[in-house]
Design a protein that fits this description.
By secondary structure, this protein is an alpha+beta fold. It has a domain of about 80 residues: 3-Layer(aba) Sandwich (Rossmann fold), CATH 3.40.50. The protein has 3 helices and 4 strands. Strands 2-1-3-4 form a 4-stranded antiparallel beta sheet. It is globular. The protein starts with 6 loop residues before the first strand and ends in a 5-residue tail after the last helix. The chain binds adenosine-5'-diphosphate and magnesium ion. Adenosine-5'-diphosphate binds next to helix 1. The site of magnesium ion has 2 residues, from helix 1.
């Protein structure tokens, strides 16, 4: 349904060692929305994104993509996600358009 969130963070926490890196982040993003994370270096943007796409475990809380948990239902949750975290490397033998098509295709199809 169009007014169901496409991405939800529910009380997400990340603890590394004894240090709380991400403390209780919750948000809802709806289809068609564009969202940016702003913050100084070291504030936790990359850590948050890595948890959203399942590259980093979540200490507490959950991430839901189209209602599916990235922790408990990874393949379904990630099946509509294309992600480049940190450095957008391009394949030089592909055109710009084909690079975009490659990164936009579902992870599992
Ligand atoms: N693997 C790790 N081990 C220990 N601390 C980490 C690790 N990854 C990130 N951090 C720490 O977590 C904090 C958030 O980092 P990060 O998410 O990379 O911030 P940003 O992307 O906003 O610059 C920083 O203080 C960083 O030093
Ligand atoms: Mg970063």
């Amino acid at each position: 349904m169009a007014n169901e969130p496409i991405l939800q963070l529910k009380n997400v926490k990340k603890k590394i060692g004894s240090r709380m890196i991400i403390n209780n982040v919750s948000l809802d993003i709806y289809p068609g929305e564009i969202m940016g994370l702003l913050g100084p270096n070291g504030s936790g943007k990359t850590t948050t994104i890595r948890m959203i796409v399942g590259l980093l475990s979540i200490t507490e809380g959950d991430v839901l993509i189209k209602g599916k948990s990235i922790t408990h239902d990874f393949e379904e949750a990630i099946s509509n996600v294309g992600g480049i975290v940190e450095n957008p490397e391009m394949y030089k033998y592909l055109s710009g358009y084909k690079n975009l098509v490659h990164y936009a295709r579902p992870t599992f199809s």
